[in-house]
Design goal:
Radius of gyration: 27 Å
Mean pLDDT: 82
Shape: elongated
Structural class: alpha+beta
Number of strands: 23
Strand order of the largest sheet: 1-2-3-5-4-10-13-11-12
Largest sheet: 9 strands, mixed
CATH architecture of the largest domain: 3-Layer(aba) Sandwich
Number of domains: 3
Length: 565
Amino acid sequence: MSLARAGQGAGEEPVGEARDPVALAPFEAGARDFSSVEALLARWAEARPEEARLVELSRRDDGRPVHALEIRGESDVPVAERPTVLLLGGLDGVSLAGGEAVLAAAHALLADPAARPADVVFVALPWAAPEALERTRRAGWSDGRDGTPVDEDGDGAVDEDGPDDVDGDGLALAMLVEDAEGPWVLGEDRRFLVRARPGDSPRYVLTREGRDDDGDGRFNEDPPGGLVLDRNFPRASGGGKDAGPDALRGSLPLSDRTARALADLAVERRTVAALVFQGDHGGVGLPRALVQALRAGDDELAVDAPSFEAAARAWFEARGTAPRFRAAGSARGSAVDWLYESLGVLALELAPWGVAPEAPAEPVDPAPSLAALAAAAAEPPATPYAHDPAWARWNDDRRGGLDFRDWVLVDLGGGRTALVGGWEPHARLNPPEEELAARAGGGAEAALAVAHALPRLGLRLVENRRQGDLVVLSVRASNAGGLPTGLWPSERWRSADEPCGVELVLALPPGAELLAGRERTCLGRLLGGQSSAAVDWVLLLPPGDRVELRARGPWAAPCALEVHP
């Protein structure tokens, strides 16, 4: 990964060098392509050269660079050692609204430097899956695939059986093919599907609109493209559904260059949080391992819940929406699951788009805990064509029913027929363009909530007693921040020779001798506002000499205390 002051054309000054300040133009959400996103990031870096620079994260298949915008304040701490908050848009390859949400957050962070802690770095990547998002933008519909050719049906050919416009209306919508073993039947509202029960008929298999182009009896089983970036991360133990091989995950974890670059960035930096903006559920997606722990009453892992709650609440409050939680992502291999379980990162999926569910019949707690919300969270529908009262109401009341096309009978040839219809392109994937501005906010508030709540280590001398050359010292470490010094997985995966949580180090001058206690002491994790047990030492120290105590933790900046016994 290279840090580049890039984004300029031939003959221009490199972005980030000293120059006259340029006004930071106001941000307006809109329907952008990859080139316009890159140009906007470059303009912001040019306008704020002391606070922002472009990071060349990866390269597209056509060789064009993919940039993130690094935003930081003045600090004596090197950028690579500062706590880092990642803001990632559209890792799913579908959520164009996620890209706009990251741009809105980056602009807000740049526009108000005083709101940012100087020692925290924000890295904003609006289009995390550029090839896939371009496909979504052009086609109006996508399942998040990039252009990677994949032989999904194992017949030796690639991309030979994709969607077709069977009914000639200019769109490739959804298709219901009658099948005695199919999992779906039409519901009472004949637009939507419900799970088939024993004896139900006719039953259907749901696929994209198209013919059996390769004559193997299946429909659209090998469409163009294949890899979904948000399925290409190492599969965390608690992460999602796993029904066997899935070509959309890629040949190997991190086989995609952008996924690998993101993983490298997260590992190289002191990454404390990752906010992934994507999805159509309008809520916050949590790591699946955490959701499972909350539902199972696993107190060891559930202790991380309040840390996630702070960022989620800030996002909901900024948007004026009621809290809603669910498991992030749609399958194993999601970035949120891997970042949390493997690196101990506070990783959340924030969905800019979605519609509010129906109000509950019974009164509810106006401020329920994240644990209570996650424990009661319903699993999302298995398909957007399943009956969902909230989306049906939105389509009927807000869109006049126009965004869902009724099922119509089509001839597939060879004596087979099917029903074609379903949601218009973009209807469920992204908001209408006129709603983008209203849906793009809240990201900066969530990022700042994390940044301002980061742990702050302190050391307090409990005992400092000298008798001749004999010195007795006792000290407590404390965390004055709102967040813990690290999450549970960061301790789970440590090796035996790595420091556990907060580490306290006693630095002795030449000639001193430690009689009791350890030079390095593992204090474990300190929650927000928590102090450690007292750590004691007995040493021989000539009069006039001094010792230094140092504390450091996964998320906290190091601190030191000089002691003169």
